[in-house]
């Protein structure tokens, strides 16, 4: 799937909110807000993200202009981490891989890190296609599942 990355616009946020409330997406992401349907918390989170000059955040837009999701890099230079959220309607179509490749072109810092639930095979495949390798693991509580889950840490060195 062809996508472009552009600056986030206020009009993108309702789409992001809807995408972040899709039950299967919450389960797969696992590390979500305790209550993704809390619109005030969502708005406060996005105000912080968009107001932080150290965060690179982009809207992922499909060929027909549809908002596919968002992708970002955040954290201090020695701990920069990537994250992305792709709407469920676009899963399995290459949107996440294309978005991550575009994001990596915007962020020259290496190493970069990523985290994924160990059973989120789609996200792990995207990260590996983009050059990330598994470098660690752990267990943590995932609000999106209401339980502890296995998590993998991935690193992009070059």
- Extended strand count: 7
What is the makeup of the main sheet? 4 strands, antiparallel
The class by helix and strand makeup works out as alpha+beta
3D shape: globular
Radius of gyration: 15 Å
Order of helices and strands: EHHHEEEHEHEE
Order the strands across the largest sheet as they lie in space: 1-2-3-4
Total of DSSP H or I helical runs spanning 4+ residues = 5
Distance between the termini: 25 Å
Low-confidence stretches: none
Approximately what portion of the residues adopt beta-strand conformation? Answer: 25-35%
Percent helix, as a range, is 25-40%
Mean pLDDT: 96
What does the secondary structure layout of this molecule look like, with pairings?
Blueprint: E1 3-7, H1 13-19, H2 23-29, H3 39-50, E2 56-62, E3 67-74, E4 81-86, H4 95-106, E5 112-117, H5 121-129, E6 133-142, E7 147-156
Antiparallel strand pairs: 1-2, 2-3, 3-4, 5-7, 6-7
Short description:
This protein is α+β, with helices and mostly antiparallel strands. It has helices at residues 13-19, 23-29, 39-50, 95-106, 121-129; strands at 3-7, 56-62, 67-74, 81-86, 112-117, 133-142, 147-156. Strand 6 (133-142) and strand 7 form a beta hairpin.
